[in-house]
Amino acid sequence: MVNESIVRAFGLEPGAFEVKKFGSGHINNTFLLSGEKGQYILQKINTYVFREPEVIARNQRLAADYLATRHPGYLFINPIPTVNGEELYVHEGEYWRMIPFIPDSTSVDQADTPKQAYEAARQFGKMARLLHGIDLHGFRATIPNFHNLTLRYSAFQEAIRQAKEDRKQFAEELIERFLRHSDIAVTFETLKTNPAFSDRLMHHDTKINNVLLNKHTFEGICVCDLDTLMPGKIISDLGDMVRTYVSPVSEEERDFSRIEVRDEYFEALMKGYLSEVGSTLSDAERAHLFYAGKFMIYMQGIRFLTDYLNGDVYYPIKYPEHNYNRAMNQLTLLERLIEKEDKLQQVIDACLKN
């Protein structure tokens, strides 16, 4: 399962540890090493997604050094170096890293209670607050243009032009419904160049399973899975939480009547996030907190539809209309969110006052 030389590279004796597959992530291969001398997480980085693993390591090291100096009590999960002092170990062209296992921790794959949404959002907000003001010049994108809605919208338009006629006709109504919300892409274009909406060091993948919770109390411990830690906008992290916390069903749900925006979850995540990061926000950022949810849901929706129109070349599918249904799912969530805009903006305003 794992070559013994990889374990030895990090100063551990392979025979002293039991190795098991770990977690529910779909990108990297993750293993849990358990033995009398402790537990460790060993990961093989997916170099198809992350073309330059060294950039991941450098970004994390820069953030860790900054936090160690400014906020030494903060729990930031930093990889364990090899016996040669390297951040990554390369074995047969594959990149491996070892991460300490946090005792008494757990993660959940979906927000089952408002408390979980609050605790996860608070941890992402805390990290954003503590990293606010860090010099971004040494950081690079681990996935270039990851949340560039301008690029995604351009790819969507190109897919419409190039799609085979049968797919274009099948998706005609869905395409039109997405195009009616093109103002979301226009807004992003204006925000990109707004100096009051500057880049921050963002996580970029704020699904709830990227926060470790206390397995007994479900209180937040720390943020994990820092591969996409890179410069970006506040709307990326906040928007991804709205997209993945507020609906009782995932983007895979085909019964679209089950998709809704749960007010109590929206309020919980806003309270958690803004209780930490709120004091660092510019007026422009404050004015676009509701927009964050629209931004991320719309972008993910057009990505699914783009892939459907292109012949399903990016996202793995289990049946012919899979990406089409994912796109319809996200459009439904977007429309449910917009329907509640006035009410949910009041929730945001109340959180900003506290």
Describe this structure in words.
It is a single chain. The strands form three sheets. The protein has a five-stranded antiparallel beta sheet with strand order 1-2-3-5-4. It contains 13 helices and ten strands. It has helices at residues 4-9, 53-70, 114-131, 149-162, 165-170, 172-179, 183-192, 234-245, 263-277, 283-286, 289-309, 322-339, 341-353; strands spanning 18-21, 29-35, 38-44, 89-91, 94-100, 105-106, 200-202, 211-214, 220-223, 230-232. With 354 residues, the protein is of the alpha+beta class. Strand 1 and strand 2 form a beta hairpin. The mean pLDDT is 96. Helix 4 (149-162) packs parallel to helix 11, helix 8 (234-245) packs across helix 11 (289-309) and helix 9 (263-277) packs parallel to helix 13. It folds into two domains: 4-101, Phosphorylase Kinase, domain 1 (2-Layer Sandwich), CATH 3.30.200; 114-353, Aminoglycoside phosphotransferase (APH), C-terminal lobe (Aminoglycoside 3'-phosphotransferase, Chain: A, domain 2, Alpha-Beta Complex), CATH 3.90.1200.
List its traits.
single chain, Aminoglycoside 3'-phosphotransferase, Chain: A, domain 2, 354 residues, Phosphorylase Kinase, domain 1, alpha+beta
Q: Major beta sheet, specifics? A: 5 strands, antiparallel
The tally of structural domains comes to: 2
Q: What is the average of the pLDDT values?
A: 96
Q: Could you state the order of secondary-structure elements as H and E? A: HEEEHEEEHHHHHEEEEHHHHHH
